[in-house]
Amino acid sequence: MAASPADSTAVKSSLFNALFSRPLPLYLSAFLLRAILLLYSLWQDANSPVKYTDIDYLVFTDAARFVSRGESPYARETYRYTPILAWLLLPTTWTAGAQWGPLAAKVINTAWFSSGKVLFAAADLVAGWLIERVLVMGTDFPAQEEKKKETEGEEKGGKTGGGKSNDGTAMAPSRARAFAAIWLLNPMVATISTRGSSEGLLGVLVMALLWAVLSRRITLAGLLLGLSVHFKIYPFIYAPAIVWWMDAERLADDRIRSPSSSSSSSTSTSSLFRKMKNFLTLPRLNLAITSLATFLSLNFLMYALYGQPFLQETYLHHVTRIDHRHNFSPYNTQLYLSSASTPLPTSSPSATAPLGQLKIESLAFLPQLLLSTILIPLALAKKDLPTSLLAQTFAFVTFNKVCTSQYFLWYMVFLPLYLPRSSFLRSKRMGLSALGLWVLGQGLWLQQGFELEFLGRSTFLPGLWAASLGFFLVNCWILGVIVGDGGR
Amino acid sequence: MRERITFVQKQGNSIEPTTLKIKSGVLNGPEIQAAREDRLTIAVDELPTDLQALLGTAHELHIRYVSSQPYEAITPLLARLPPGFHLFYTPAREAEATSSALCLTLNKVFGNVQCETPQESFTTLPRDRFTHSAAYQYYQQSVDFSPFIEYAKQKLCSSVKDQSCAIRVDSLAEASTLDISYDAISHAVKLTAAWPYQKREVHATSRPQARTEVGVLNSDRPGHLEPHEVGISGLLTVLGQDEKPSATMFAFASRHRDAESSFSAELLEPTGLHPTLQLKLESNKPPTEDAYCSPHAYFTLPKTIFADRHQLSDDLFLTSKNLTGLRYISQPVDLEAPEYVEKRWGSALLLELSAPEHEKSESWTAQVPLHLRYLSPAEGGDTDIEVPYPAVFWACAAEEGTKFPNNPFEKVNLGYDGLFGPRTVFWHVEPRPEIGSQLTNTIKVPVLDTDKAEWVSGGTGLAVLLGFAWIVWKLFGVLSKSGYQSQPAQATEASKTKKKQ
Fold it and tell me: How does it sit in the membrane (chain B) (predicted)?
């Protein structure tokens, strides 16, 4: 990742200054990157039978078209998202009025149709800006005023910022922008959103959630948490980390703290009860209630509007899906194998189904949820909330029963917050080997996948299986390092 | 019970009436080049009781079996379908759709018909007031016919000793098509078998208690023939009644015509999981200049393979494949499910092809992009599946006001006819494989190799456990070193790292 400020030769440092010392160059280049990709997508889609635009974008826009006709977005098969997404994309269904000539009308229609990609790309930029805000704000807490002074001081005190290690306190804006560039100028991120994938929306929601939490806007955080879980389920893993993080000391909430401390001195209440009472702070209750209320009311609303198909497609589908098609998940081969063998139990007597037949895939949620909702938040959230969220997301994606490259964006958005303090930046060799192994792991898998998908070779075993396990172990190693870093 | 036996020759090949010898219910004639069609019409109360019970639940039922052996069809026996076992069904009451009675009886009569109930296994056909399609469609690629032949021998032949009857029923194995049609209005079952155009002896015997009519016909072109009509002439005899054949000539409107060209279908290599079926048509010229015509291909794809209607909606993509558009696809087609959980038989689709325009007639190709479902794991890592040829025809619009009343050789309810307007004429292109001798193509589908699957469960579990343990170990390190609280010592840690850098 090009933005490491540590290795600053003269040339690099001047480039660094040019790009990051002011906000405009970075955001302009991030904008231009997406604008060029978007225009290119229009050209390729219009001129080649092989499309740049992702099939998902056609699913979203088809669903939006159903909505524009007053029908349910779930009338479009494989639409498995919240109706909000289809509503947001309603402009993609708009067309030019009759007053326009045929050429102008075509341009206008194309522009409207692409408006969803513009939205996703804009979400990328906002997420990047929020990353900068969070880095500048600092993730740990001296009092707000002090921090402000510190940042200002840094800003005045020169742009190098290179040698300064960030330990949770504020970061110079130029340096923060350099790290935000990992997201903003990342070709993978820009490509995914200009192809029309909605992951950028999740990026902005999740980053806004973190920003709201760190700046003590608890009600806003609750709203964002409820909304993002409604959008894509997985952000529920952030709830325990945030709740754990927002202890009374951190939130400096005197009204709650003083009565509890006084009671401890005067009475003989059991310590467990006292602990529980201490744990149930007003902000925690506020977060729990606002997020739950947001999540539930959105679901009630959608259920009232679209009924059972909403529940089936957005939520229940994830329970019943088989995930037999090849993907990065370590469980994939096992899932394919067992999904095909379950309908035939009648032929074999019960005696031939020993303990060895215990289905590991039915226990897959255990390591995944243990790590991402309990163990990682418990160990890391109070020390370094962004790194905890990164590690939780990384664990969730790595141990998931289905995993495609779009899921990588879920954790990538947190990388700029973690990397400044990471072993991967401190040791160049370690950083490069992690990146190299991560890319190589995917490369090997993709090569096997290509042979299967396009050449028709049966590479399920051992090729794809071994490649997915290899990639899984690489990810586990990286996650272990992240956990270690987060605990320092 | 009535029986009609027809020998059909091509135009210009007729036989002299004197060459036919009729004697005590048996007709004998010379060896001629002809197709043969036998039609047996049986009233419902003459049927075995189990079939009677079954038909009682049906408003209409059409079973059409088409051989996967290529055959030459001649006027007027032209209607074509993809090879395989087709079924079109309208239940008498909607409740029948959830009953397994039909599928059980089909299994009894035909052997291995793999359906459960119409609702689960069949697809529904579009119906409006203009079309007369049946409600449900079912298709299966390969059906072994020996169980049906055994069943028919038992039920149709009066005794085991009736050798000639047994021989006739046995000959169904060589038929190119077999149709069993019932509708509640006529209250009769028509069993129609046709044998390909080849050298055969004119020979027919009457059945006891059945009126048997024999025709030795050829297509003809009488002077007053309209463009949408076909003409027939030849000799008709009612066995046991006529002593010599009577000459006949008649013309009728026909929706099925011969385009007098051929096509073949083959898969482009490598097939992968997204095979492309390439149709190669001999001619890009429409069969008639009098009407607007456009080439179409009608597919019945077993559930192992399917087309994605969303992929087939982009004009640029379609044009690059010489396709005009997807005109119909049975709904729903699950785009994700593996073959082994899919209960529906598969999908039917109608594609309009786009013939390149050239002055002189030349051959051309169209590519049909398809997708394979995941199949069950198997030994060796691959499983062969068969993809049937489509029915390819030019659909031409007959003149305004043209009527197509039923003709004696007409077939309706073919799956695609209901998708067109009532004035459409189908000019059939003959399937003639360039490779192999069957109207199917074989795809080797990669599947998980069960020979190597022994270690999957254990290996996956071990890897997950290893990864999990490593992370838990790191988490344990963090917790044991500094607990779960935020670190006040962070500042010193940070200064250490500062020094390092």
Answer: Single-pass membrane protein; Single-pass type III membrane protein
Residue B457 with chain A: CB contacts under 8 Å: 334, 337, 356, 360
Contact assignment for A343 to B377 by CB distance below 8 Å:
no
The three-state secondary structure class of A75 is helix
Residue span of the structural domain in which B423 resides: 257-451
Do B96 and B60 fall within a single domain?
yes
Alpha carbon distance A189, A408 (integer Å): 10
The verdict on B446 touching A (C-beta cutoff 8 Å) is: yes
Q: Do residues B191 and B155 lie in contact, with contact meaning Cβ atoms separated by under 8 Å? A: no
* Identity of the residue in A49, A78, A375 whose CB atom sits nearest the CB atom of B472: A375
What ipTM, to 2 d.p.?
0.83
Alpha-carbon span B248 to B246, nearest angstrom: 6
Length of chain A: 488
CA dist A42 to A37, A117, A356, B443, B456, Å? Answer: 9, 11, 53, 36, 44
Q: Quick one: B330 and B421 in the same domain?
A: yes
| 8 Å CB contact of B471 and A395 | yes
Q: Where are the domains of chain A?
A: 330-339+381-487
Rg (CA), chain A: 25
Domain-embedded: residue B499: no
Residues B250 and B367 in one domain: no
The string of pLDDT tens digits covering residues B305-356 is 999 988 898 888 898 899 999 999 998 888 888 998 888 999 999 999 999 8
Residue pair B115/B103 in contact (Cβ under 8 Å)? The answer is yes
* Model pTM score: 0.84
Q: Which residues of A touch B338 (CB under 8 A)?
A: 322, 324, 339-340
Q: In terms of Cα–Cα distance, which of B426, B364, B419 is closest to B80? A: B426
B34-73 confidence digits (pLDDT tens)? 999 999 898 888 888 888 888 888 889 999 999 888 988 8
Paired with B280 in beta bridges are: B264, B365
Beta strands at B391-397 and B123-124: parallel, antiparallel or unpaired: unpaired
CB-closest option in B310, B374, B468 to A325: B374
CB contact under 8 A, B338 and A339: yes
CB contacts, 8 Å: A331 with chain B: 460, 464
Q: Please state the domain count of chain B.
A: 2
Q: How far is CA B302 from CA A454, B84, B133, in A?
A: 21, 10, 21
In a domain, B323, yes or no: yes
**Residue ranges of B 242-301 with Cβ closer than 8 A to chain A:** 270-274
Does B329 lie in the same domain as B439?
Answer: yes
Mutate to test the interface with B, among A169, A460, A472, A473 (most CBs of B within 10 A): A460
Q: Rounded to a whole number, what is the distance in Å from the CA of A452 to chain B's nearest CA?
A: 6
Which chain A residues touch B487 with a CB distance below 8 Å? 383, 488
